[in-house]
Write a structure and sequence with these properties.
The protein has 414 residues and is an alpha/beta fold. It contains 12 helices and 21 strands. Helix 5 crosses helix 6 and helix 8 packs parallel to helix 9. The chain is elongated, with a radius of gyration of 23 Å. The model has no long low-confidence stretch (mean pLDDT 96). The structure holds pyridoxal-5'-phosphate. Pyridoxal-5'-phosphate (PLP) binds next to helix 10.
Length: 414
């Protein structure tokens, strides 16, 4: 077994107890299992084995250098969503030819940087962006590889805030316009269309929209070939969901079964951009109880933690559910509580009406499945410092990001 599980009453990470880690590094603290990251990466790689594919880990899910480096060592390539993520990818050891650059609002500086590097492909979001890439490429006397991000108008049936494949979303180029755009772009000296790209959204647990999106891409690629635009790859984005409540959800093999039979028809290599699927269950957030309080006139018992929306904003931003458990189970009576953060915001609630052994001040708790879109979304609101991060690897824990200090923050201020 890899990842987080109980040994007796204690929650451990790959056999390493969490309570001593929190004592050594303080809380809030993110902890990751290297073994679980590797196992989840390999599950995707195995599911697509036998068909030409490359996994471009979506750095947006978690781009802490040690995690990016680990994925690189496993054979992953990278999906970068900003100039910052491109530079992190380079520092983690990815070659430019292993990076796809996505994002709905790439600046001139970011595009110029990606062109200078010669990334594998820039996934373009509009006709205007193609023109900007052409101008920049002409100035540099290079031909830049682009993939057209297609908006297939397919409902991913996920949370509206993380749905991207509907025509009412800001992402991509409407599927009906792609052929005409490619006809205009074909044969231009400064850009080369090498792929089609689709990304429907995140936390997708219904395979049918993913199959439909794959079908749209394959059909479109066939039409483009007839029109005279021959491409090299289909990039099917990320989006595969994970189970946040322990109930079964489709896994990498189900995903491959849903899309590979369709994609095979194209004969084209595929690019995958998984983020959450690899990293979400491989991380958790440790936090301590700082107060337990009742409000007169209310039946709620509030458990105030030393972590909140500054460390993990998913519950507040997407109404996301995360399991929250005491690290050491006690035999205190089971009690229904609201688990809240310390910030001056009523929305700063990590979990409502959770049944836990009645908590005591100082006890350590874990928010599970927070490896993705956790630490990367942390902020300094209320002048709170970014949390430390630890990775457990080969039976030992090492600090991969120290806790931010006020001096770190204030060095930027004049
Ligand atoms: C273009 C693109 N690719 C990949 C991803 C990764 O998605 P996920 O973490 O759901 O796999 C995202 C995130 O939404 C994205 O916008």
């Amino acid at each position: 077994m890899t990842g987080f599980y109980r040994q007796g009453a204690a929650l451990v990470c790959d056999g390493v107890p969490l309570e001593p880690l929190a004592a050594a590094h303080g809380t809030p603290l993110y902890v990751y299992s290297a073994a679980m990251i590797a196992a989840r990466y390999r599950a995707i790689d195995d599911a697509f084995a036998g068909y030409p594919h490359s996994i471009h880990y979506a750095l947006k899910a978690n781009s802490t250098l040690a995690i990016a480096r680990l994925l690189k060592s496993l054979g992953s390539h990278a999906d970068a969503n900003s100039g910052g993520e491109i530079d992190v990818a380079l520092r983690a050891g990815f070659a430019p030819s292993q990076i796809v650059f996505t994002g709905v609002g790439k600046t001139i500086a970011e595009l110029g940087h990606a062109i200078d590097l010669g990334v594998r492909s820039i996934n373009v979001e509009s006709a205007g962006e193609i023109e900007r890439i052409e101008t920049l490429s002409r100035e540099r006397k290079v031909r830049t590889k682009i993939a057209i991000r297609v908006n297939p108008d397919v409902d991913a049936k996920t949370h509206p805030h993380i749905s991207t494949g509907l025509k009412t979303n800001k992402f991509g180029i409407a599927i009906d316009e792609v052929r005409a755009l490619c006809a205009q772009t074909r044969g231009r000296p400064d850009v080369e269309i090498v792929g089609l790209h689709v990304h429907l959204g995140s936390q997708i647990t219904n395979m049918e929209p993913l199959t439909r999106a794959a079908r749209s891409l394959v059909d479109l690629a066939r039409h483009l070939a007839l029109d005279g635009t021959s491409i090299e790859h289909l990039d099917i984005g990320g989006g595969l969901g994970v189970s946040y409540d322990g109930s079964p959800v489709p896994e990498a093999a189900d995903y491959a079964n849903a899309v590979l039979p369709v994609l095979r028809e194209s004969g084209l290599a595929i690019v995958l951009e998984p983020g959450r699927q690899i990293i979400a269950p491989a991380g958790l957030l440790l936090m301590r109880v700082v107060d337990v309080k009742e409000q007169p006139g209310s039946d709620r018992l509030f458990v105030v933690m030393d972590a909140g929306m500054t460390e993990l904003i998913r519950p507040m931003l997407y109404s996301a559910f995360h399991r929250i458990e005491p690290v050491i189970r006690t035999d205190a009576p089971a009690t229904s509580v609201d688990i809240v953060g310390p910030l001056c915001e009523s929305s700063d609630t990590l979990g409502k009406e959770r049944t836990v052994p009645r908590p005591r001040v100082g006890e350590l708790y874990a928010v599970l499945d927070t490896g993705a879109y956790g630490s990367v979304m942390a902020s300094n609101y209320n002048r709170r410092m970014l949390p430390a991060e630890v990775m457990v690897e080969n039976g030992a824990a090492r600090l991969i990001r120290r806790r931010q200090t006020l001096d770190d923050v204030l060095t930027l201020e004049i």
